[in-house]
Structures are given as C-alpha cells and as structure tokens.
Specification:
262 residues; alpha+beta; Glucose Permease (Domain IIA); ten-stranded antiparallel sheet; three-stranded mixed sheet
Length: 262
C-alpha cells in the first residue's frame, strides 16, 4: 500500500510572505516617518533683522533774500564805477554805473525780479529801461539798441531779456551802461553782479557807495560827433583847470571846475 502523500505545512509558505510584507511596509514607512518628524520638529527661530533707521536729510537752505544776475553774462566790465574823466571833459565826474562792451544786438537781461519803472530815450543815456526792485533798489540799462516790448508797470523775472545792446545816446561804441541804486543813491554794480545775499545785513551797501577820490582818465574808441572840434577850440582859448570832487546832500558826487582866467 503506497504511503500517503502529505501537503507541506502552510506555515512554511507564510513566513516568507510575512517577511516580504514587513519589508515593504517598513520601506514605505521611512518617508512617512521622516515627514512626520519634520512636522513635529519645531522650525528654527530666526532673529528679526533690524535695519538702522536712515538719518533724515538735512533741510534745504532757504533761498537767498537778494539775488542779482549780470545783465550780460560772461562779459567783462570795460569801464568801472567811480570818478571818470572822458577826453573831452574838463574834469572828472561820477560814472554812476559800469560799462560792459558787447556786440550790437546782444540780449540784455534784467538783473533781478522787478517792475519796469520807466522807458524812453535820453540825450545822454540814449534808449534806456529802468526797473524797480524790492527794498528801494533800481537798475538802469542804457545806450540800448532796441527795447524788447518793455513798458511801465510790466513785471519781469530775473534773467528775462528786456532789450538789445546798442549805441544810442552819447556813446563811444556798442556797449551797455548798467546802474544799480538804492533809494536814489548810486551803488557800485560790480559788488552785486552774479551774487546772492542771504539777508539784508549781508548787502555791501557801504562798500558799494564808496567812491575813490582818484579820477580815472577814460580811453574811448570814438568821440561824439563835433566833440573834437569843441575841445580844440576850448584848449586854444586857454580854458581848463583842476576838478575838485564833492558829494552833495543827495549823495551824488560832483566836480567843480576851476577855470583859469584868460
């Protein structure tokens, strides 16, 4: 009688399956465990970055109380303020402004904000424009070639062209005669041109009103018509003399001519 054939025990097959399942489960549990650990681990506390507060910018300086431009920027003074004697004059007299040489037709710009006080034509100044400014200042522009529409009462900003350089009036060539005065007293324009002053106390009023006693003999390129003949006749008659400079109550300097007896 043949021996009975018995099936292998079921536990022998289940063991490998159980081990394989455990390996798979363990392998799958590693990322999950890491993720869980990441969730449970508190995030590092980063100290806040404190930026230093920027220093406030210094306040802008206040605008100057007074500002004067040159009427012909970049051009030099040919004849300064002070006592001057022209070749045909018997003595010196106060040249109440400065002469600035420039080609005819060059734009003349107003030196400061103001209102046109008057315009016109004068035998000596020729065509001119006068502008009133604050605190009693006035500026005068003379020997002009043309007025650029300026009329009494027109407000003009500093640097605005108001006229063109010319040769009108008693002139010795194409140039601008420029004056600055305050309350009727002539001041040296050279001490104001292209300068700003923070307050009234900074204005060089005393220095600008000072007139040197030395009389400067002016050099001219052209004499007024008929002047040479008049001078020759005066010299032939033996007239002449020394001028004595004096200042009047109005602040203007005048020269008294002492004429020799002839």
């Amino acid at each position: 009688m043949a021996p009975d054939t018995q099936a292998p025990p079921a536990r022998n097959l289940a063991l490998p399956l159980t081990l394989g399942f455990a390996v798979v489960v363990a392998a799958a549990s590693v990322p999950a465990a890491r993720a869980l650990a990441d969730l449970l681990t508190p995030a590092p506390i980063t100290a806040p970055v404190i930026q230093a507060a920027a220093e406030p910018a210094p306040p802008a300086p206040p605008p100057p109380a007074y500002a004067f431009d040159a009427p012909l920027p970049g051009r030099d003074i040919a004849s300064p303020f002070g006592l001057r004697q022209l070749p045909w004059e018997e003595g010196g007299r106060l040249h109440e402004g400065v002469d600035i040489a420039a080609p005819s037709g060059t734009a003349v710009k107003v030196a400061a904000d103001g209102v046109v006080l008057r315009t016109g034509v004068d035998a000596g100044y020729g065509r001119f424009v006068e502008v009133r400014h604050k605190d009693g200042f006035t500026t005068l522009y003379a020997h002009l070639g043309r007025n650029l529409g300026m009329k009494k009462g027109v407000f003009v900003r500093r640097g605005t062209p108001i006229a063109l350089v010319g040769d009108s009036g008693r002139s010795t060539g194409s140039h601008l005669h420029f004056e600055i005065s305050r309350k009727g007293r002539p001041l040296n324009p050279a001490l104001f041109m292209d300068k700003t002053f923070a307050q009234a106390d900074d204005l060089p009023l005393k220095a600008a009103a000072r007139v040197p006693r030395k009389v400067r003999l002016a050099q001219v390129s052209r004499w007024p018509e008929g002047m040479k003949e008049r001078v020759a006749a005066r010299r032939a008659a033996g007239k002449g003399g020394v001028g004595v400079a004096t200042r009047g109550e109005d602040g203007r300097v005048r020269v008294r001519i002492q004429v020799a007896a002839g």
